[in-house]
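note to self — DONT lose this again. spent like an hour looking for the file last time. sequence + predicted structure for the chain T wanted, 299 res
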Amino acid sequence: MIRVRVPASSANLGPGFDCLGLALGLHLHVEARVGQPDALLYVGEGHVADDADNLIHLGFRRAFEAAGRPPPSVAFNAHNAIPLARGLGSSSAALVAGAAAADAVMDGVLGRDGVFALTAAIEGHPDNVGPAVYGGLTVAAERAGGDGYDTAVLAVPPAWRLLFGVPAFELPTERARAALPEQVSRRDAVLTASRAALWALAVARDEPRLLRTASLDVLHEPYREALVPGLASARAALFEAGAHAAYLSGAGPTLAAIAPEGALVACRAVLERFAGDGGRVLELRAGDGYSCASVADGA
């Protein structure tokens, strides 16, 4: 049996659209039993059908295909603590879990870099699978000619406190992407590039004061405000409460904040109001990339 643990992730971080992501200490746990009939036993957030038409199986099959091998049948048991369709990387975690399990079965023929390349290609963007694979803060840039991504990883300062206001409603990524314009102005492109670069420096130098500027976005968040009630006012309230950063996590609807110790209570109150009835606030630490191990059945 193969056991895989994959972290949630928070992507974009404001201006880092499709290139910046943070791994979080919230996980999808999967057990894979190769040779058993294709099936999925799912427990946890939301609802996923108990059949082989799911992202875990897709990642597993595609990994074998990438290695030029026929995929065997496999039964998965999944316990998922990552909210679905909330901008916390649940889809990427599922893909990575399946691909990592397959790579373990194949004795690591793909390796961690291969798992990343495969799942980023399936997703079409690397900002969630990057942290799911490598952990920490990942910065991914597409190579010339579109031939994959170069990726770098920075350790997130352990004292940084991360808060996430998670509303009760789902926001599919496809709907959130459909709200975006096809073109942006030169000024918006410059602002986006400079602020995304500042994010990496803030992490590398442990200077959270830089995040107030680094987390500001003009590329996608303004166009998604209509899809996330209260986003603009809650983001402003977080800064007034003392947050270093406030941004839409992934495609939303989750609103994230990074706050100093003295502002945690006030920022949590803002996020509780934002999340509303049926929503919740998660306080998390930055996480590591996926882990994978072969264990005896019953262990």
